[in-house]
């Protein structure tokens, strides 16, 4: 009999803990998988006790997913290298700002035949340009990496409210395995052969969410927010196509990771909520994150900065007025009302390939 596959999870925040619930239930029904699911927990002290000990004793991540029990086969471990060392399937789900440090920690500890999937919504910036999380993970670990993203507010999924998600995977056989680990009656997975299209959608929608929050903070209505969602969606597609048009399928934007995630994030996400507070209180995003999120992390305002550094360095700001305005409101003290400046952009000539105008 061949040895069983083992899945592990790197990250135990709000989404990481919710994903752990799903995966840990699914592996018990998959004969090819070991039942134990190790999860790496960034160790911290909660009410005088280590978070790993609380999770392993009470089977609940009381800080990041309170009120939802984790299956008993989820085992919290504070050492990331220990978590990955015998895993065949590695689920990476941490805030994107911490990815490189985590990868450096586990470098050399993974199995050569392991594969990974990124649930992270974020991008990286380097001298070479913009990089996706799967590209960053692949560069360090040299294993195949897929992506998962969708209209997925973690708390709603933990309550088992029906939703969809998208897996981007280039190998059809691997896609089947990843789907078997995530799919449930309430969490419907669709697989597409477009790894980076899925993750560009997941990362860039967080910038649009910040814009939607500004609209709510200004007390404007649904029509205004719909306009921001529409323009934001088109700027997302334009930027993704500009960077990697040849590799991205236009149809990906119509999956859960695309249009559906933009909608849910602009109504129910943390980035939206804190952007509303930003306008109402005048406090910085970092201050609001500390005051209101109890350790959870925002991705949107960081991604707005990363996107800006890319489009500014290439002199294409005029093609992305909404992303530019959101950046300037977040970082340069521009008034929230300036979000409407120069938004009358023509997207009608955007095609599959990078726009010649860019
Ligand atoms: N929460 C959601 O609804 C949701 C849904 C889909 C995707 N995502 C994405 O999933 C990713 C992870 O988000 P989340 O919601 O699980 O996390 P979170 O924001 O709820 O929690 C933050 C996590 O970061 C950890 N952390 C703090 N400092 C750290 C450090 N220095 N190094 C490493 N880890 C550190 C904390 O322990 C905690 O686990 C993000 O990219 C997010 O956009 C989140
Ligand atoms: O709470 P947010 O803003 O990080 O968004 C959560 C999810 O990404 C929505 O799909």
From TrEMBL:
Task: Please verify whether the record's keywords include rRNA-binding.
Answer: no
Glycerol-3-phosphate dehydrogenase NAD-dependent C-terminal domain ranges (all copies): 194-340
* Its EC number(s): 1.1.1.8
Stored Pfam families = NAD_Gly3P_dh_C, NAD_Gly3P_dh_N
Its family remark reads: Belongs to the NAD-dependent glycerol-3-phosphate dehydrogenase family.
Enumerate the spans annotated as Glycerol-3-phosphate dehydrogenase NAD-dependent N-terminal domain.
6-173
Catalysed transformations (reactions):
sn-glycerol 3-phosphate + NAD(+) = dihydroxyacetone phosphate + NADH + H(+)
Which Gene3D superfamilies does its entry note?
N-(1-d-carboxylethyl)-l-norvaline Dehydrogenase, domain 2 (1.10.1040.10), NAD(P)-binding Rossmann-like Domain (3.40.50.720)
UniProt xrefs under InterPro entries: 6-PGluconate_DH-like_C_sf, 6PGD_dom2, G3P_DH_NAD-dep, G3P_DH_NAD-dep_C, G3P_DH_NAD-dep_euk, G3P_DH_NAD-dep_N, NAD(P)-bd_dom_sf
Q: SUPFAM superfamilies given for it?
A: 6-phosphogluconate dehydrogenase C-terminal domain-like (SSF48179), NAD(P)-binding Rossmann-fold domains (SSF51735)
Q: Top enzyme class of this protein?
A: oxidoreductase
Q: Name one GO molecular function term.
A: glycerol-3-phosphate dehydrogenase (NAD+) activity
Q: Could you tell me the keywords of this UniProt record?
A: NAD, Oxidoreductase
Query: Which domain of life, per UniProt?
Result: Eukaryota
Protein name stated in the entry:
Glycerol-3-phosphate dehydrogenase [NAD(+)]
